[in-house]
């Protein structure tokens, strides 16, 4: 470690953003470069894996160089390279993993493979120091989970979606309303001006369960639109958006609140792309305002969507705990976040 501090280079290519960042001491962003591919995937209504891989190949070197340049840090001053190992699109993950391995090998630096969702959770540490135990509501395009953490680097999934992820449900409902991809921000915008006047289901599941389910809600929205069309009735898209959003938020916030009470946590973190949702942010703030003993942390929008600063942040903790990946590191699309817990037992 240089006298300036511990610098970790983070690399993220799990989906449709090619990103590199440098984080100092696990808490301070020194540079954070993201090349988004959204424009290339928009006309297909979703991420096309082959196109994503091709863009990552074209961008990765430029993005890493730019992260170093903006940080005014040399490769010699970097303590380790952290890279998203999984989950994600396998072809996309491989570009980041191979770039990280090449850099680690060429410069003789330690390599640390990290879990993408652990990254989303650690985006919060770039805002505020974590206090344990904590619970994190992770809501992204591919994941909806409640993760309990008793200490740094230790993750326990206490609830997860049984079908669609929250972001996926947003994107599918948006497509039904003929809104562009990614649909989440469009539904959010419409929901602000609509009225939640349509009665839609809330999937609470069994008593005490922290799991989620959004596919029934998605079908209910499609049926409502279909029935209205058959009867020649007009339904305002903003009312559909507001009603859908109210149903999603009711369940997400209520389950987070219950987990907070049951597990006696000190801090609640919001993570993932859907954390950008204005309605969700406002409702969480309202709810936890009434629980002053619990510290609610909501990251700024640029840290909610995919970025590499969050990968460097979790990579720092794993590096400090002594975890190292070998040069045989592979992209792992099905990587389990709880597997991370076992990595430290050999310390
Ligand atoms: O975490 P993320 O950037 O990528 C994954 O790892 O999945 O999340 C992307 C998801 C998309 O489904 C997008 O529609 C959703 O986050 N999203 C939103 C909002 N902004 C992005 N969903 C609801 N409201 C938003 N404002
Ligand atoms: Zn993500």
UniProtKB/TrEMBL annotation:
<dbReference type="Pfam" id="PF00814">
    <property type="entry name" value="TsaD"/>
</dbReference>
<protein>
    <recommendedName>
        <fullName>tRNA N6-adenosine threonylcarbamoyltransferase</fullName>
        <ecNumber>2.3.1.234</ecNumber>
    </recommendedName>
</protein>
<dbReference type="GO" id="GO:0005737">
    <property type="term" value="C:cytoplasm"/>
</dbReference>
<keyword id="KW-0479">Metal-binding</keyword>
<dbReference type="InterPro" id="IPR043129">
    <property type="entry name" value="ATPase_NBD"/>
</dbReference>
<feature type="binding site">
    <location>
        <position position="306"/>
    </location>
    <ligand>
        <name>Fe cation</name>
    </ligand>
</feature>
<dbReference type="GO" id="GO:0002949">
    <property type="term" value="P:tRNA threonylcarbamoyladenosine modification"/>
</dbReference>
<keyword id="KW-0963">Cytoplasm</keyword>
<feature type="binding site">
    <location>
        <position position="277"/>
    </location>
    <ligand>
        <name>substrate</name>
    </ligand>
</feature>
<feature type="binding site">
    <location>
        <position position="188"/>
    </location>
    <ligand>
        <name>substrate</name>
    </ligand>
</feature>
<keyword id="KW-0808">Transferase</keyword>
<feature type="binding site">
    <location>
        <position position="116"/>
    </location>
    <ligand>
        <name>Fe cation</name>
    </ligand>
</feature>
<dbReference type="InterPro" id="IPR000905">
    <property type="entry name" value="Gcp-like_dom"/>
</dbReference>
<feature type="binding site">
    <location>
        <begin position="138"/>
        <end position="142"/>
    </location>
    <ligand>
        <name>substrate</name>
    </ligand>
</feature>
<keyword id="KW-0012">Acyltransferase</keyword>
<comment type="similarity">
    <text>Belongs to the KAE1 / TsaD family.</text>
</comment>
<dbReference type="InterPro" id="IPR017860">
    <property type="entry name" value="Peptidase_M22_CS"/>
</dbReference>
<feature type="binding site">
    <location>
        <position position="171"/>
    </location>
    <ligand>
        <name>substrate</name>
    </ligand>
</feature>
<feature type="domain" description="Gcp-like">
    <location>
        <begin position="28"/>
        <end position="312"/>
    </location>
</feature>
<dbReference type="InterPro" id="IPR017861">
    <property type="entry name" value="KAE1/TsaD"/>
</dbReference>
<feature type="binding site">
    <location>
        <position position="120"/>
    </location>
    <ligand>
        <name>Fe cation</name>
    </ligand>
</feature>
<keyword id="KW-0408">Iron</keyword>
<dbReference type="InterPro" id="IPR022450">
    <property type="entry name" value="TsaD"/>
</dbReference>
<dbReference type="GO" id="GO:0005506">
    <property type="term" value="F:iron ion binding"/>
</dbReference>
<keyword id="KW-0819">tRNA processing</keyword>
<feature type="binding site">
    <location>
        <position position="184"/>
    </location>
    <ligand>
        <name>substrate</name>
    </ligand>
</feature>
<comment type="function">
    <text>Required for the formation of a threonylcarbamoyl group on adenosine at position 37 (t(6)A37) in tRNAs that read codons beginning with adenine. Is involved in the transfer of the threonylcarbamoyl moiety of threonylcarbamoyl-AMP (TC-AMP) to the N6 group of A37, together with TsaE and TsaB. TsaD likely plays a direct catalytic role in this reaction.</text>
</comment>
<dbReference type="GO" id="GO:0061711">
    <property type="term" value="F:tRNA N(6)-L-threonylcarbamoyladenine synthase activity"/>
</dbReference>
